[in-house]
Each structure stands twice: as C-alpha cells, then as structure tokens.
Amino acid sequence: MADMCAxxxxxxxxxxxGPGGPASDLxxxxxxxxxxxxxxxxxxxxxxxxxxxxxxxxxxxxVCVLPMGGxxxxxxxxxxLGPPGLGLRLAGLCDEGEQRFYERGLARxxxxxxxxxVCVTDLEDELIRTLGTARTEEIVRAWQTFxxxxxxxxxxxxQQLRRFLGTKKGRKIRYGRLLVExxxxxxxxxxxxxxxxxx
Length: 199
Hints:
By secondary structure, the chain is of the alpha/beta class. The protein has 11 helices and 4 strands. Helix content is 53%, strand content 11%.
C-alpha cells in the first residue's frame, strides 16, 4: 500500500509538471496495470471502501486509484497514464455534469471511454438515493443542526443531505466511506458497482 501511495504521489507530481521517470519506474516495479481516475478524494475513499468490503486488495492487483483534483484534469492524467504515456488501462467514475470533460480528455489521449462510469449528479447523490434518506440520516447524525439553518428550510431532505456532505472539508471523504460501508450487498449504486466489477 505504501508503494502505491508513492506511485500516486509520483503521478501527481508528474501531472503538476515534474519529471515522469519516478512514476514510470514505480509503475514497472509495482506491476501497475490499471489507473482508476477519480475527480477527488471522496470518490477515492468510496472506491477503496467498497473494494475492502469485497475482500479485494486493489494495489496487490496492480490497480492504482487516483484522485485527480477535478474533472478538468482527466486529459492530462489520461495522456500521462494511458496509451501515449505509460500505456496503463484506464477506468474511472465521473459526475454527469462533468462527462463532456472526460469524453474530450480521453479522446485527446486516444484512451477508450469504455471503462468509465457516470454518476447521476455525483457519487454522494447515488449513495443517498441507494440507501434512502432515512438510512442516510441515521449515519449522518451531525446534520440535524445543519437542517435547522434558514437556508435549508423548504428544501427536500435528499438535497439537504447532499448539501451537508459538501459544506465542510473532509466531510465527503468521511461520510462517503461510511455510506459505502452501510450499503447492503445488493445496494451498491450501478456506477460504483460497474467500476469495481470492471477492474
């Protein structure tokens, strides 16, 4: 796991304009065969949590899960890691509103779009819809104070929950993992399930 973190860091440095040699060397040494491109750390936490629940060690399988820091970075990461770069198989999740960035970025990198799965709105929305608002409320105890804020009055609970998850740094990461852990075996949202099955 520590080695895969080193690879992830090397790729991030490379994407930021640093040298590609360290990432390339680590990819070979670790046997990395697939890069899972995700918009941010909350998606990363959810994918890792589901893999753990299913008894999978993605790093041992040669799969590196990479939060890119936003959808607009996909072209850069696909170019470095896909066919024109390290030649890794690419997969990932994207939000419905960001799908065009993924399509264009992958096309520029000559990488297939087939391994990418689209979340309606975003992954948090998928998890809330799958679990239902009542079960999500049980998991997200601290949100009661948030609900009493005047700006939240009259908003559907589903929308309140989504807003709550996105209002504080780190909250989406923490609750994304908890929501995934609360899913029943048959409750995994289709995009997240499809991604893991494709790896």
